[in-house]
C-alpha cells in the first residue's frame, strides 16, 4: 500500500517500471508521482504540478477543494496527466517525457468535468471520459472538443455518483471501469464492456466487482480503481480505501490510501482477488530506498514529500536564510487562516513520533497536526513560552502553556492508536500527545487530545492528516524534523 492521504490512484506501466499518481486537493505542490518495479514498493519521484504556472490555488479554495482525481497514461513516447482543479479552474492536461518532471504548462479542456480519463484508439484519437460517465473526443494540443459530449453508461441503477471512469482496450474489447456509491461506506468499483471506445456498453453481471460495503473488513470505502497489466502478463487493480479505527462509526484519520489487489479474467470479465491491509503482489520484489526519518534541510530544495497549504510563495520560506535550516516567515495569523506559512508531510502511520528542533526567538510557530482550517492541534513556541492549541470546528482553546528558556527547543508530537477491538462504542481512534523535550531527551507532555476530532468523520471532506511546521508571527526556523514510525503503517 501507499499509506496516508494518497487517494484516487491512477497507474500505468512503461517497460519494467510502474508509475502512479494521486489526488492532492488543496496542497501544493500537486499530484505526487510514484515509481515502482513490483507494484508493492513505491518511491515518490516528484510532483507533477510544482509551479504556479501549472497550479495557482487562491485563498478562496476550500479545504478538500483543489486538485481532484488525476489519470496518468503513457502514449506515443510521452506521459500524459489529466486532472481537474475544483472549483475554480477546470480540467487540464500536462505532459512530460520524464515522470519525475519537469511537466509542461497545462492545456485546458473547457468541455470536460471532474475525474477525467484519457484513452487512445487505434487511429490515435484521444477519448476523454469523466464523472457522470460522459465522454467527448478531444484535441490534446488545443483542448478543444471534437464533436459532442454524450453519456455512455449510467452505472448500476440507483447507485450514487457514477464517477472515476477509466477506459481500456483489452484483446479487442473496450472495458469501462467506474466508481459508484459515493466515496464513503457505499463505495465500489463496477465495470462494463463494449466493442468500441464509445460503446455500446453492457454491464458486468457481477457488479460491483469490488466493494466492502456492509462488511467487517479492515479496509473500507474501497473504490476508484485503475487496472494495469504487469510485465509478466498478470493483471492488478490499484484503488483507494480507508482503515477506520475506534468505536462507532469508526474514524479514519490518515485519509484515503492506495491499495493493491490481484485481478484475474473469467468469462471476459475482471475478477478482483483478496484485499490485504499490506500491499502484496506476485512480482519479484524490487525494494526502493527508504527515505531517512530525519530531514536536516541541507539540500538546495525541499524533498517532494513536503507540501504546503494552497501555495508556497518564495517570500514565505527559505533554505538559504540560515543554511541547514528551514526558515518560515509568517503570512496569515494562524492555522485557522487559508494562507498560513506551513510545510508538512502526510501522516502515514497510525503510531508515529514527530520531533523538530525549533528556533522561535524571532516569532511564534511550531508543529501542527492539520486536517483543515477548523480542525488542527499544534504545539507552539514563542515569546518565552510553549503552549498547545486545539481547534475543533467553532471551538478553540489554548490547552496548556509553560515558560521555556531562550533558544532552540525540540517540539514533539506523538500519535498512539486505539486497540483493534473497541473497549466501548465511542472509543477514540487514537490519541495525540503534544509537548517538548528537555535537554536530556525526556518528553514533557503538555496535553493529550482525542484523535477523533482530526478525522474525516468529524471534519468532513476528502483529505487526511498532515503533520508539519508552521509560523504564525515573525520568523521561525527549523534545524531538522524527524518523522519516526512506531511499527507498520
SSE map:
Layout: E1 10-14, E2 17-21, E3 27-28, E4 30-36, E5 43-49, E6 66-75, E7 78-86, E8 90-96, E9 107-108, E10 117-120, E11 126-130, E12 134-138, E13 150-151, E14 163-170, E15 173-180, E16 188-194, E17 202-203, E18 220-229, E19 235-242, E20 257-266, E21 269-272, E22 294-295, E23 308-309, E24 317-318, E25 326-329, E26 341-346, E27 352-372, E28 375-382, E29 385-392, E30 395-403, E31 409-417, E32 430-437, E33 443-450, H1 456-459, E34 466-485
Antiparallel strand pairs: 1-2, 2-4, 3-23, 4-5, 6-7, 7-8, 8-9, 10-11, 11-12, 12-13, 14-15, 15-16, 16-17, 18-19, 19-20, 20-21, 22-34, 24-25, 25-34, 26-34, 27-28, 27-31, 27-34, 28-29, 29-30, 31-32, 32-33
Describe the structure.
A hairpin with a 5-residue loop joins strand 10 and strand 11. The protein is 1% helix and 48% strand. The chain folds into 2 domains: 10-272, Tachylectin-2, Chain A (5 Propeller); 294-485, Jelly Rolls (Sandwich). The chain is mostly beta strands. The strands form 7 sheets. Strands 22, 24, 25, 26, 27, 28, 29, 30, 31, 32, 33 and 34 form a 12-stranded antiparallel beta sheet that branches. Strands 1-2-4-5 form a 4-stranded antiparallel beta sheet, with no helix packed on it. The chain is built from 1 helix and 34 strands. The chain is globular, with a radius of gyration of 23 Å.
Brief overview, please?
This protein has 489 residues and is mainly β.
Any descriptors?
489 residues; mainly beta; Tachylectin-2, Chain A; Jelly Rolls; 2 domains; twelve-stranded antiparallel sheet; four-stranded antiparallel sheet; 1 helix; 34 strands; Glycosyl_Hydrlase_43; Glycoside hydrolase family 43 protein
Amino acid at each position: 500500500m501507499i499509506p496516508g492521504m494518497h487517494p484516487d490512484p491512477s497507474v500505468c506501466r512503461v517497460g519494467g517500471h510502474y508509475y502512479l499518481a494521486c489526488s492532492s486537493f488543496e496542497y501544493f505542490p500537486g499530484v505526487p508521482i510514484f515509481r515502482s518495479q513490483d507494484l508493492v514498493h513505491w518511491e515518490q519521484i516528484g510532483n507533477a504540478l510544482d509551479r504556479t504556472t501549472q497550479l495557482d490555488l487562491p485563498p478562496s479554495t476550500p479545504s478538500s477543494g483543489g486538485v481532484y482525481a488525476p489519470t496518468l497514461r503513457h502514449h506515443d513516447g510521452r506521459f500524459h496527466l489529466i486532472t481537474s482543479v475544483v472549483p475554480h479552474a477546470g480540467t487540464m492536461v500536462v505532459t512530460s517525457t520524464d515522470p519525475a518532471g519537469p511537466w509542461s504548462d497545462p492545456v485546458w479542456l473547457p468541455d470536460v468535468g471532474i475525474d477525467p480519463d484519457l484513452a487512445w484508439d487505434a487511429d490515435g484519437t484521444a477519448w476523454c471520459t469523466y464523472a457522470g460517465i460522459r465522454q467527448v473526443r478531444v484535441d490534446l494540443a488545443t483542448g478543444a472538443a471534437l464533436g459532442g459530449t454524450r453519456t455512455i453508461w449510467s452505472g448500476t441503477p440507483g447507485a450514487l455518483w457514477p464517477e472515476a471512469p477509466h477506459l481500456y482496450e483489452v484483446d479487442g474489447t473496450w472495458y469501462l471501469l467506474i466508481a459508484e456509491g459515493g466515496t464513503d461506506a457505499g463505495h465500489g468499483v463496477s465495470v462494463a464492456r463494449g466493442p468500441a471506445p464509445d460503446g455500446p456498453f453492457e454491464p458486468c453481471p457481477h457488479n460491483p466487482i469490488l466493494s466492502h460495503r456492509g462488511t467487517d473488513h479492515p479496509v473500507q470505502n474501497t473504490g476508484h480503481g485503475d487496472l494495469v497489466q504487469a510485465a509478466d502478463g498478470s493483471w492488478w487493480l490499484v484503488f483507494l480505501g480507508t482503515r477506520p479505527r475506534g468505536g462507532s462509526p469508526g474514524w479514519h484519520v490518515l485519509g484515503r490510501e492506495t491499495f493493491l489487489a490481484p485481478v484475474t479474467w473469467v468469462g471476459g470479465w475482471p475478477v478482483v482477488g483478496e484485499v490485504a491491509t499490506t500491499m502484496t503482489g506476485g512480482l519479484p520484489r524490487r525494494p526502493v530506498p527508504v527515505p531517512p526519518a530525519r530531514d536536516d534541510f541541507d539540500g538546495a530544495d525541499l524533498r517532494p514529500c513536503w507540501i504546503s497549504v494552497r501555495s508556497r510563495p518564495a517570500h514565505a520560506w527559505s533554505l538559504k536564510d540560515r543554511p541547514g535550516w528551514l526558515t518560515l516567515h509568517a503570512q496569515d495569523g494562524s492555522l485557522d487562516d487559508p494562507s498560513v506559512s506551513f510545510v508538512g508531510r502526510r501522516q502515514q502511520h497510525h503510531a508515529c513520533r514527530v520531533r523538530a528542533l525549533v528556533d522561535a526567538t524571532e516569532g511564534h510557530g511550531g508543529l501542527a497536526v492539520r486536517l483543515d482550517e477548523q480542525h488542527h492541534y499544534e504545539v507552539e513556541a514563542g515569546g518565552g513560552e510553549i503552549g498547545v492549541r486545539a481547534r475543533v470546528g467553532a471551538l478553540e482553546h489554548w490547552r496548556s502553556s509553560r515558560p521555556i528558556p531562550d533558544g532552540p527547543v525540540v517540539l514533539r508530537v506523538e500519535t498512539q492508536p486505539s486497540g483493534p477491538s473497541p473497549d466501548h462504542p465511542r472509543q477514540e481512534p487514537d490519541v495525540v500527545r503534544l509537548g517538548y523535550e528537555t535537554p536530556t531527551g525526556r518528553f514533557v507532555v503538555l496535553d493529550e487530545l482525542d484523535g477523533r476530532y482530526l478525522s474525516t468523520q468529524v471534519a468532513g471532506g476528502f483529505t487526511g492528516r498532515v503533520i508539519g511546521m508552521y509560523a504564525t508571527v515573525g520568523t521561525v526556523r527549523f534545524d531538522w524534523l524527524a518523522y519516526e514510525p512506531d511499527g507498520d503503517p
